[in-house]
């Protein structure tokens, strides 16, 4: 049998990203495999929040909008995200939630395609994407929501009435990476736009929106970007649409001259028009500090470590947990797999509860999917191995089969 422990130790010794681990606050006694839902906190974020509250807010008060750069935070934070998604400075706006940014971009897409009425969305996408699309379709008389079901070819569903296709770049359950360039090309050939949700992609897998000829993208910042619970989301629209694009949440902070207090709305140039109301300064300050780490990260090394970690976990689990009821639910090809691994099991919820009770935190997605997220900046291969061993022991000894683990709790 392979000596997985020794292999893990060897991989950790040669890990070029090992130094980043010390910059994070690591919960005692926990192997954290849920960075795909909420990333860990960096030490510097706490001091940045304290400075923002005690100095900029308490002492600087309203002067901090200019003196501390509060007014520009939606764009300065966006500039830190831009290299991670393959776009330029000044092209990404940070603010509001992923849900609100989906609404903005879908509405903008409908406006850009006035002769078309259909939003074509993945049927198995993360629920908020389809909920927002459904809500928008219910408000706009001419809009209609249709679904692209699993196994259906995009080319068979897209047509002359399709205004925009809504897809996730990395599937939240299966971790499958979609071929962004191919999807964009197919949609453009039919005259439609594509809105990409990058929530499970940014900071986890390579993304190059410009090279893929993308139209629009949104994403959250609290997963692999470690921005904190409820951290503001980001939005991007290709600059080719700026002369005509309109987004419906035309708040004063997206105005060309917000302090001119004009009656009529005039959009700010570029991505600033995607900003809506007053920026959430405390959350933005925490996010801006969390994003600073990416200035030092070798992205090629990060993505390679993510591929190795997910492959290693799959290998160990399938060896140690053979014939124990697990079914792999992600692609085996690392080039098609994001930075999380899912296994299906009929008692998946109870198993994840049992794992959490023993210090391994992952998450569960109904009806039977156990997800394990791998954040290469702070996770070690040794922890990955140890998590697989604890999973094996729980399965072999049926520790999950206890009343305490059957109670459904909130899992985000």
TrEMBL record:
Named cofactor requirement(s): pyridoxal 5'-phosphate
What GO biological process terms does the UniProt entry carry, in alphabetical order?
anthranilate metabolic process; L-kynurenine catabolic process; L-tryptophan catabolic process to kynurenine; NAD+ biosynthetic process; quinolinate biosynthetic process
Determine the domain of life of the protein's source: Bacteria
Kindly indicate where the leader peptide sits in this chain.
Answer: none
The UniProt catalytic activity note for this protein reads: 3-hydroxy-L-kynurenine + H2O = 3-hydroxyanthranilate + L-alanine + H(+); L-kynurenine + H2O = anthranilate + L-alanine + H(+)
Kindly give the SUPFAM superfamilies that the UniProt entry links to this protein: PLP-dependent transferases
State its role.
Catalyzes the cleavage of L-kynurenine (L-Kyn) and L-3-hydroxykynurenine (L-3OHKyn) into anthranilic acid (AA) and 3-hydroxyanthranilic acid (3-OHAA), respectively.
Q: How does it assemble?
A: Homodimer.
To which protein family does this belong? Belongs to the kynureninase family.
Question: What is the official name of this protein in its record?
Answer: Kynureninase
- The gene from which this protein is expressed is kynU
């Amino acid at each position: 049998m392979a000596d997985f422990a020794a292999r893990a130790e060897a991989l950790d010794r040669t890990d070029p990203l090992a130094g980043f681990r010390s910059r994070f606050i690591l919960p005692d006694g926990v192997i954290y495999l849920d960075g795909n839902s909420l990333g860990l906190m960096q030490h510097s974020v706490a001091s940045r929040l304290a400075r923002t509250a005690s100095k900029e807010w308490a002492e600087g008060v309203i002067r901090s909008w200019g003196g501390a750069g509060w007014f520009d935070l939606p764009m300065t934070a966006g500039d830190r995200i831009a290299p991670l998604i393959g776009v330029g400075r000044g092209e990404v706006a940070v603010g509001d939630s992923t849900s609100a940014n989906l609404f903005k971009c879908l509405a903008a897409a409908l406006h850009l395609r006035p002769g078309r009425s259909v939003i074509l969305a993945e049927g198995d996408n993360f629920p908020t994407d389809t909920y927002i699309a459904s809500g928008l379709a219910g408000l706009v008389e001419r809009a209609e929501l249709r679904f692209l079901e699993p196994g259906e070819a995009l080319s068979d569903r897209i047509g002359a009435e399709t205004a925009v296709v809504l897809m996730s770049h990395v599937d939240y359950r299966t971790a499958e990476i979609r071929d962004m360039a191919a999807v964009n090309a197919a949609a453009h050939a039919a005259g439609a736009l594509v809105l990409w949700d990058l929530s499970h992609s940014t900071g986890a897998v390579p993304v190059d929106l410009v090279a893929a000829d993308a139209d629009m993208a949104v994403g959250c910042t609290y997963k692999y970007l470690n921005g904190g619970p409820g951290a503001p989301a980001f939005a991007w629209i290709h600059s080719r649409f700026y002369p005509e694009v309109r987004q419906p949440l035309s708040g004063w902070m997206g105005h060309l001259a917000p302090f001119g207090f004009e009656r009529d709305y005039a959009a700010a140039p570029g991505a600033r028009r995607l900003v809506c109301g007053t920026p959430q300064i405390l959350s933005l300050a925490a996010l801006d500090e969390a994003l600073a780490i990416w200035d030092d990260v070798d992205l090629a090394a990060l993505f390679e470590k993510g591929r190795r970690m997910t492959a290693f976990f799959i290998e160990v689990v399938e060896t140690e947990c053979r014939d124990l009821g697990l079914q792999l639910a992600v692609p085996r090809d690392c080039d098609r797999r994001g930075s999380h691994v899912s296994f299906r099991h009929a008692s998946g919820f109870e198993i994840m509860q049992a794992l959490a009770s023993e210090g391994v935190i992952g998450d569960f997605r109904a009806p039977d999917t156990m997800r394990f997220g791998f954040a290469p900046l702070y996770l070690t291969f040794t922890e990955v191995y140890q998590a697989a061993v604890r999973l094996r022991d729980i399965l072999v000894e049926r520790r999950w089969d206890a009343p305490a683990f059957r109670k459904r709790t909130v899992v985000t």
